[in-house]
Amino acid sequence: MLSRRVRQIDPSETLRIAAMARQLKEQGVDVIDLSVGEPDFPTPSNIKEAGKKAIDRNITRYTPNPGLPELRAAVAEKLRRDNNVSYEPDEIIISPGAKNCLFIAWMALLDEGHEVIIPSPYWVTYPQQVLLAGGKPVVIDTMEEDGFKLRPRALESVINEKTKAIIINNPCNPTGTAYTRDELASLCTIAADRGLYIVADEIYEKLVYDEFDFTSIGALGEHIKQRAIIINGVSKSYSMTGWRLGFAAAPREIIDAMNKIQSHNTSNACSISQVAALEALRGPQDDVTRMVREFQQRRDYMLSRLKEIPRISCVEPTGAFYVFPNFSAYYDTEYDGMHVRNSVELAHYLLTHANVAVVPGSAFGRDKYIRLSYAASMEEIRKAMDRIADAVARLKPST
Fold first, then answer.
1. Is the pLDDT score of 23 beyond 90?
2. Residue 266 · residue 318 · CB < 8 Å
3. Both 96 and 211 in a single domain?
4. What is the DSSP letter of 37?
5. What domain range includes position 318?
6. What is the pLDDT of residue 24?
7. How distant, in Å, are the alpha carbons of 45, 175, 291, 337, 369 from that of 329?
8. Which of 11, 89, 227, 395 lies at 20 to 30 Å from 186 by C-alpha?
9. pLDDT in tens, 75-96
């Protein structure tokens, strides 16, 4: 008999869709995958060379559990340089991915029954990790017409004596929504004043567009910083998803607790990845600038194509590399015997009749929507949008 813990969580829908797309490709089907949450660019050459040199120098053994001292120092430098936030190296932990940073943070914070406020749409893993840690996800919907931004009054309405934390994903996966400094300050002040911890997933911080000025919550003042747990990493900004390298910054007591948990679940992050991440943070940043410029062009093109599809609405994303269009006008339709009544069935329809993989919005808590990633080449995006437009046009009202 499996544990109650594992029986109450769901597998990752994004990973499931990606696996289905890979399987179809292996069978020779020309599938375009717009489900994946990783840049299609190669890891920059200087970073790859640093990893190779680490192997040649036999840096292949265990490192200190919280990470190489020089990498923790480099993260502290990065936070001061890029985010105007001051942390000491012993207030930082290096982990096998930002996802693991999140997991050990919840394990360090939550006791059975503690509530965590999660704005919806949310990344698929947030509620599942809270459940695994014994907590209770309290999902609060944000509105499309409001840019999918959580507002102070809505936040205040769900805080009670059981509330332990709130998670803020900025920029957001799946919507691409990003908060201004004033918007963040309003939310974080309420949370800090009420004694909540603020878990800030800032993994997409460098992937922002239209000259948007990103603000880390740690820069909002000491009162907020003392309640903040900043989660970040190198996966998205440096196209290093497979290197599995994330980091967290928080008050020393929190980091010590996370370090204790990590010592029993994964131990240190990969030594080679840590050396590569050191080069990513301290080396040239030209490749990041180039990726951001290309992502913005892809975003603009995908939005222009979505606007051509009748009855579709879509909030313009400010960051990350996703769009989250509302396709609910095409529910209660059918084609060739296949019914489309929700986002899961729409995603299945697009995969089987258009050979395009997307993620249903229900995975993110919002069934009216689907998520499309523009972390694909412009050529693939063009073909995918042609296919989606044609497939949707074939749908007729169910009889």
1. no
2. no
3. yes
4. -
5. 4-42+287-394
6. 81
7. 45, 19, 34, 19, 10
8. 89
9. 999 999 999 999 999 999 999 9
